[in-house]
Amino acid sequence: MVVTEATTTKSRLLEAAGQEFAQKGYDAASIRKICDRVGANCAAVNYHFGSKEQLYLEALLEAHRCGTQVIPEEFLLQGTPAEQLARFIHHFLKNVVALAQKNTWHHTLMLREMIQPTVALETLVREAIRPKFERLLGILRRACPDVDDRRLHALAFSVIGQCLHYRTAGEVNRRLIGEDAYESLDLEFLSHHISGFCLAALGLAPPLVQSHTVSSSDVKA
Amino acid sequence: MVVTEATTTKSRLLEAAGQEFAQKGYDAASIRKICDRVGANCAAVNYHFGSKEQLYLEALLEAHRCGTQVIPEEFLLQGTPAEQLARFIHHFLKNVVALAQKNTWHHTLMLREMIQPTVALETLVREAIRPKFERLLGILRRACPDVDDRRLHALAFSVIGQCLHYRTAGEVNRRLIGEDAYESLDLEFLSHHISGFCLAALGLAPPLVQSHTVSSSDVKA
DNA sequence: GCACGTTTCAAACAGTCGTTTCAATCAACT
DNA sequence: AGTTGATTGAAACGACTGTTTGAAACGTGC
Predict the structure, then answer these.
(1) pLDDT of residue B22
(2) B157 CB within 8 Å of a chain A CB
(3) Cβ–Cβ under 8 Å, residues A37 and A1
(4) pLDDT at position B58, please?
(5) Is A106's pLDDT higher than 80?
(6) For residue A14, is pLDDT > 60?
(7) B208 touches chain A (CB under 8 A)
(8) Rounded distance, CA A195 to CA A185, Å?
(9) At B195, is the secondary structure helix, strand, or coil?
(10) Domains of chain A and CATH, by start
(11) Angstrom distance, A118 CA to D25 C1'
(12) Contact, A64 vs A127, CB < 8 A?
């Protein structure tokens, strides 16, 4: 599929590079294929970007520039801490995990960088990830004012880990429970589930499910 | 570092291939470097394994053969469902996430396959992952007998997601909260944290932290 | 029309990749 | 010793990689 829009060759290369890198990874992606996709000569990459590594870096920056639509601070701060957390989780699932819009390469590329870091990770964390992380820490701090930093960090990772799992291990999950069952785990359900799970753990909502009582001594049937 | 044990060339190749594939990924790893590490000729790979892809596949099988020490069923079934879940989480963190033993390539390679699947994923899921997953489902089913399958799956993913996050996003986490703070999240602390978090969410333990009460109308200070 | 800097192009560069070939080596058995 | 089959070795294969080169093509200002 050859993309030939009325934009510049450089921007078209960046777009194609983002898709190719996201899909195949840095090593497996080739600049010849990237150039072919936009109908450009393979020398164009070195002319516009200098090298393959620079192209990858610029694609990564483009990814977190386009992929991270920042929520207005004031929208996020509305309501109780519990509501703020639920809103954060919903937004995180919707945008970062991006279950619905599978054709965007931006978050896929950032995920790749997270999992197998290159020299670009430092910048990515500083520019894109840390701001969001600090917001989550703020919400959790307001929700549980008395916890120390260590517990606070672990709480944040518990929230993020649950969300990201559907991205990082999506293909495994799909095979574990079957195609149909996995598709039924849509944004709405997962958003409610993870919110309820976390809020219950924090004592900000009733337990997710009615289980055996804690006190009863049921040592297995 | 050249490894020259008294084992066969084939097994030494497999070991070196596992390390190389785990460290660099399938594409970036080269069979010449693998052979160099064990002092073998690069034709040895094609002689013993047929192709690079077959070598990768066998390394992956070796990984889940050596890396998954199955817990005796009867040890896992002791105590209440809550205790079983805590024990599962502890074991999962200890072995799969392997925070302590960083020099083993087995789980790194399997993680890679999970995140960036090849044709080998099907086998890996069937042989290594699903059995453990079914055990977790069993525990959760005993802990919450009344939930439907959809909720059950989401619960299992919440447990696994929290644990795996320290593997998949370890480097990002480290940079987000700092080296020292991340090192303080050791196996014991994380095991207790995630267990407490999940059990509280299920109503099998008191909330992790004392937060603002649910009923109070604190609309933000 | 002419010269200018920018952009594109085909071609070749040196290097690495996975794989193949075939001769040399080795251990084991008659 | 001699033969057989399994294993290793150096070298080359064709295909691909990222990168460089130098000449065309382009639009723009004089």
Answers:
(1) 93
(2) yes
(3) yes
(4) 94
(5) yes
(6) yes
(7) yes
(8) 14
(9) helix
(10) 5-58 (1.10.10.60), 73-210 (1.10.357)
(11) 39
(12) yes
